Amino acid sequence: MPVPTPKAHVCMPARDDLSSNPPAPSQHSEPQPSLEELLDTRHDPAYGEAVQVARLVQRVTAANASPFTFAGTGTYIVGGRRVAVIDPGPDDAGHTEALLRALEGRTVTHICITHTHSDHSPASRALAEATGAPVLGFGPHPAADAGRDSARGSAVQEEPGDWDFAPDGVLGHGDVVAGDGWTLECLHTPGHISNHLCFALPEERALFTGDHVMGWSSTIIPPPDGNLGDYLRSLELLVARGDRDGVYWPTHGPAITAPNRYARALLAHRHRRTDQILACLRDGPSTIPAMVARMYTTTPEVLHPAAALSVLAHLIHLAEEGKVTRDPTADMRAATYALA
Ligand SMILES: [Zn+2]
After folding, report:
1. What does the angle CA 336 – CA 144 – CA 249 come to, to the nearest 5 degrees?
2. Residue 117 C-alpha to ligand 1 middle, in angstroms?
3. What is the number of other CB atoms lying within 10 angstroms of the CB of residue 193?
4. What distance in angstroms lies between residue 35's CA and the mean position of ligand 1's atoms?
5. CA of 335 to the centre of ligand 1 (A)
6. Residue at which a domain ends, from 244, 272, 300
7. Is 193 left (phi over 0), alpha (psi -120 to 50) or beta?
8. Residues spanned by the domain of 332
9. Which CATH number fits the domain that encloses residue 329?
10. CATH number of the domain to which 166 belongs
């Protein structure tokens, strides 16, 4: 039976889109539901239990609920007697114990990591030690992220990096991890973070989407390693897969059961935000705080730093496209922006 989502999340807006302002007119609008209509926060985490979500897939959720992790990290177990584990989760003894309980009598042959944020990869060390299985991922935490964790002080709009992550084996786009009755195909999906992978499980027509695509919220794109242009291309990669994926399983929150439509809504949502920012620059607001004040009028001020981060990611992307310039003498966060 579904239980209410944790209290902290009941009123939590999408992480990047904190605005309930009416949408600005968009040249990109399509006859499809908006992201806001498709977001789904109904989810029973069943903490510590191994929940069978498909014939080949179980999920054990860690009790690390937060504004970034929603109800917590969902660790997936793929296979029957010989299994892969995707995203063992945070450094949390209770979760590792629950995971090892769920794995009793089975052999872990691979530990696969979607990306190196502290709610996804740190438990790979304890799990590898307990099982002897190799840890596989795109690579170490990106150097471009250096200083980000400390620079933002106590700001809570981002996930800390797992700087100790050192995979036993490296996975790249197109690589295949083959196991006993299951196959995981790797898709490199940078954007949220440059080392992000999604894993397709063709035996279930499923895609494990990590934090790239989540059903309860759009993802956060924290510059400089997080990159909106990469993120849009990574979304287009998923859209182009058509009906190869019948379901997405994100690391946080519920399954996405109409995945292609959802990925297209995420794209439309970002294009709409881009249009709003261009409209700001046409009409006057030219700094990030001024744009946030104009676009996020119904958002509590405490969430404005997260909104500012999203606007910054969009401005960097618009500058990369040659559509926007900024005062080069100022820090990106404090700069004045203009249409190119
Ligand atoms: Zn993440």
Report:
1. 100
2. 5
3. 31
4. 20
5. 27
6. 272
7. beta
8. 275-339
9. 1.10.10.10
10. 3.60.15.10
